[in-house]
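Table S2 (text version). Query chain:
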Amino acid sequence: MSDTRVFVGSMLAGLTALGVAVFMYTSSNRAMAAEDGPGPNLVITVAGEAANGTVVIDLLPDVAPKHVAQITELARTGAYNNVVFHRVIDGFMAQTGDVKYGKWGEDLSMAGTGKSDLPNIPAVAAQFELIQDLQADEWWENVSYPMLEEVRRKLRGLVHLIERSKKGVVYSDFVDELGVSVEIDLPGTGGAVAGNEFVQFRKKAEHFLKENLGEGVVAKVRSGQPLSDADIAELQRILVAAGIGDDETFEEASDKAGSFGRFIRSIVGLDRAAAKGVFARFLDDKRYSKNQISFVNLIIDELSKKGIVEAKRIYEQPFSGLASQGPEQIFVEADVADLFELIHNLNRVSP
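Corresponding structure-token output:
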């Protein structure tokens, strides 16, 4: 359910429209004969073309008190009324409970992604965005070991919230057969598919570095301090240790960005406080106008996001919205020269 992703979201359970589900909360003294526990019980009346009937769910407040409180409150207020089963896998599972986007008779294109107005359970809420991302096929494209390890680390604290049930043994009966062999070019060996390898490398490097911004040498990149050869070697070492990149991709990254340090900076950005420190004198409202300070803040924004600002960039939008002819239009010549020198020094990153 949308507000109880510990039961479906964190297990990545997915499911197609079955019919209208009308939910009603009942206390144990109003429970139906089919109920086998003390309750409270969630009684679901299903009415649709594919299925009709009543489902009774025995909630377990002693195991998951916060989740039960959420569900019973939503049922009590009628939030579940006319909510559809938006995803069904025959013989496996059925998913419902989207009180925002899952109402019968409304647009169901977003069903399964909504939530109620009640606050999320803190432990689940902290990882809500990640849990949502994991349910999209796009996240799993080019997934790497470090990415999976990060998911394991972040979601392991939610495992105890999943209801435990007896698992049946699944047997398989496969016969291995050797088919016709075909020679293919492997990424990283100079073959035809190697062109896409750099895109995958950058994606993996970006994910890893943004998860490790506090790492000593990564923090140094963001600080704006010049990097030494030893720093560059350390950056490459930690990437290799994480299973990301090799000498070939590092060389390509250097060629594309101008240096390996610039490549890393373009991923992690420049720390905003560091950028403001570099341009501090241009932020003095006693010396510079509001328009001039806004222009410099745009430079800081660009550096914080992209790490690098090419000189020609500040003649384009959004900069040209403040000075259509460039910084020369609003700053004196000496200030323009100083601005470009500061930008140039920050862009160097490493020798």
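Notes on Table S2: The first helix runs from residue 65 to 76. The chain is about 40% helix and 10% strand.
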